[in-house]
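From the thread on structure requests for the teaching lab: each student submitted one protein with a one-line request. Submission from student K.M.:

"Model DUF2752 domain-containing protein from Terrimicrobium sacchariphilum, tokens only."
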Amino acid sequence: MTGLPCPLCGGTRAAKALMHGDVATALRLNALALPAVGMIALIGIILVSEAIRGRPWMDWTPFLRRIGRFAPWVVLFLLIWWIPQLLGALRGSKSELLDTRNPVARYLQQHLGQSHL
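Reply posted by the TA:
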């Protein structure tokens, strides 16, 4: 909506770079892709093994409740993470994450871009 990158912006491209073995590009685009790809792979392995066994490994409800307590911290972390993502896009080092066709993004890039930061 604004043309600005979200905290997870670049995650798909980072995951793709990671799958091709380009860790440096993956880290530059979005370092959160590394743990996300690992977590998705682990969840996939668990789900496949549960399907093969025909029963779950454990009761997931208490585990999910415990994780739910960390949700506010995860949101705070993502907001803090968003700041360098946004600055990288505005400064030009991650310009592929910025859509300057949008007036908000174009204005911020012109006023907060490389020459002003």
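TA comment: The chain has one domain: 11-112. The chain has a mean pLDDT of 84.
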